[in-house]
Design a protein that fits this description.
about 200 residues; 8-stranded antiparallel β-barrel
């Protein structure tokens, strides 16, 4: 009987808390799939996956946290196969709705254009070397158009440019040095499409 009362209490607490959270929520979630591309050497990989969530801190601004998996592959004549580097990246962004600058009634429009800037942390590993992981702090700039299908559900696209100021693996998975560490500045961009769900969107 005691356990029944405790379980009932927690069930009611969870139900009430969820209802309050939903009714007041400014949270949302998003998921994307697409390309990650390198300028030099020129290569395109359809190996970008990203999921995340956001919180609307003001009508025009959001704080976003997301996690991405990216794989870069290039033909390696020495190995006789493809090789590359794998990234696992987490990023916190500040997102701004650019449509607010163009249209005072933007909130009611089906289409809105967002931009975001973020600071990320990446763990990079070579696809064939066993030299360990490279930990990278990076900067991300992006643009994010959204089209509302119905309240709370959006089709979304994203194009982001990523700067790795200190990267110790080349894009083929080899080290950037043979003796004393000598990192490179890694530059790449992603283009992806996905869905966005915004709770309590009216």
């Amino acid at each position: 009987m005691k356990n029944f009362k405790i379980n009932t209490f927690f069930a009611l607490f969870l139900l009430i808390s969820t209802n309050i959270l939903y009714s007041q929520s400014k949270f949302g979630i998003e998921a994307y799939y697409g390309m990650n591309n390198v300028y030099e050497p020129n290569q395109t990989n359809l190996k970008h996956i990203r999921i995340g969530g956001f919180y609307e801190i003001y009508e025009d601004f959001e704080i976003k946290l997301d996690f991405a998996s990216e794989k870069f592959r290039i033909s390696n004549d020495f190995l006789g196969d493809e090789s590359g580097v794998d990234f696992i990246r987490s990023t916190i962004h500040l997102d701004y709705n650019l449509s607010a600058l163009l249209d005072r009634e933007y909130y009611y429009n089906k289409f809105n254009l967002h931009t975001h800037v973020g600071i990320g942390y990446t763990i990079a590993k070579s696809s064939y070397l066993t030299t360990g992981k490279d930990e990278i702090v990076n900067v991300i700039l992006g643009i994010n158009p959204r089209y509302r299908i119905f309240n709370g559900f959006y089709l979304s696209a994203d194009a982001s440019f990523v700067i790795n100021p200190s990267q110790h693996y080349n894009w083929d998975g080899s080290l950037t040095y043979s003796g004393k560490p000598n990192p490179i500045t890694g530059l790449y961009y992603t283009i992806s499409g996905g869905i966005l769900i915004k709770f309590n969107d009216r």
